[in-house]
Amino acid sequence: NIPDTVGYTLPNEFGQLIADIKANTPGIENVIISTHCQNDLGLSTANTLAGAYAGARQVEVTINGIGERAGNASLEEVVMALKCRGEQVLGGLYTGINTQHIIMASKMVEEYSGLLVQPHKAIVGANAFAHESGIHQDGMLKHRDTYEIMSPEDIGLHRANQSGIVLGKLSGRHALKSKMQELGFAIDGKEFDDFFWRFKSVAEKKKTITDDDLIALISDEVFQPQLVWKLGDLQVTCGSLGLSTATVKLIDADGEEHVACCVGTGPIDAAYKA
């Protein structure tokens, strides 16, 4: 076993170390070289892959990369790196692991250990297959392989939104229109333009926009009844010394103002009469 106990080496150094051991150790053909890489510099996965490429045939990894200090080489990262690139650039290396169990194994370790997986963790993080940037969303809607080097189904993750789109402040028109069609709303032209800018203003205040948010927005912004009257001003005078009086200004659909004043048995009665 060849460890990088404090995670200090760089991938080219660690790979060369394994290659030198393999080339200069008598009887090395009778043993399996194993690696154990720590993540103090964030290089544990890269060092593990470099060691495997140089001749190591056992790699010590942990699910979710948990371990001492900054953790160990992450099983899911090493396995999926070999699955994605092993045949092309890593000499045909493979693991034989059923990758569709990765997400469930990750969640089980997270639950039992109490160590939460950060959202941006590669492969198993909550955001690993989420796309918020407008140009990325546009690419995903046209062709998923544009911005996904692996499928979420490869690790056993099944998402309701097949394009992985998360609407937020960086989302563009294409993503928003696609999402609204998914929800059953077909809007175009000026209605969509107005809705898009309303959506952007809300997205500036919220991290992500949910389906309920969109439905509320579309109802508030687009599907409104035709304006007949608009309340311009309301002034009410009331007290124990006299009748309640209300003055109301209404604006009709043509923009013309109508002002009326009336007395009543109370401020509400006076306002309605006016």
Give a description of the structure.
It contains 9 helices and 6 strands; from the N terminus they run βαβαβααααααβββα. The strands form 2 sheets. A 3-stranded parallel β-sheet has the order 1-2-3, covered by helices on one side. 38% of the residues lie in helices and 13% in strands. β1 (2-4), α1 and β2 (34-37) form a beta-alpha-beta unit. The N and C termini lie far apart (90 Å). One of its GO terms (biological process) is L-leucine biosynthetic process. One of its GO terms (cellular component) is chloroplast. InterPro entries: 2-IPM_HCS-like, 2-isopropylmalate_synth_dimer, Aldolase_TIM, LeuA/HCS_post-cat, PYR_CT.
Uncertain residue segments: none
What helical percentage do the residues reach? 25-40%
> Tally of extended strands?
6
H and E string: EHEHEHHHHHHEEEH
CATH class of the largest domain: Alpha Beta
CATH 4th-level superfamily of the largest domain? Aldolase class I
The CATH architecture of the largest domain? Alpha-Beta Barrel
Task: Give the amount of beta strand, in percent.
Answer: 5-15%
How many discrete domains?
3
Q: The CATH topology of the largest domain is what?
A: TIM Barrel
Q: Number of helical segments?
A: 9
Please give the order of strands in the largest beta sheet. 1-2-3
GO biological process, one term: L-leucine biosynthetic process
InterPro entries: 2-IPM_HCS-like (IPR050073), 2-isopropylmalate_synth_dimer (IPR013709), Aldolase_TIM (IPR013785), LeuA/HCS_post-cat (IPR054691), PYR_CT (IPR000891)
Organism: Ipomoea obscura
Pfam family, one: LeuA_dimer
